């Protein structure tokens, strides 16, 4: 099984396009590890369960969005939506 890589972009320097739950999970996992947090640490901070963190990081498509926004905030990230550019 090959390790997941980030979608195109660099989380520290430019926006990353999220096209799937797998993309979101990969970004959150990289950010959590960069901050040297365990899944348990993040779950405690965000007030959610470790199972939810595991599911989200693994790209579970039915993961609830509300807790995901809390995790995004705790990881020092933000979500921005804009109109898609058509080339």
From TrEMBL:
InterPro entries: Cro/C1-type_HTH, Lambda_DNA-bd_dom_sf
Molecular function via GO: DNA binding
Domain HTH cro/C1-type: start-end pairs: 28-82
Pfam families (UniProt xref): HTH_3 (PF01381)
SUPFAM superfamilies documented for this protein: lambda repressor-like DNA-binding domains
Protein's name in the database: Transcriptional regulator, XRE family
């Amino acid at each position: 099984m090959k390790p997941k890589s980030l979608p195109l972009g660099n989380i520290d320097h430019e926006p990353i396009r999220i096209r799937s739950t797998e993309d979101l999970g990969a970004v959150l996992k990289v950010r959590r590890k960069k901050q040297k947090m365990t899944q348990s640490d993040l779950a405690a901070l965000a007030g959610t369960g470790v199972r939810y963190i595991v599911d989200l990081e693994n790209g579970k498509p039915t993961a609830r969005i509300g807790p995901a926004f809390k995790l995004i905030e705790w990881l020092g990230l933000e979500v921005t939506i804009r109109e898609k550019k058509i080339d």
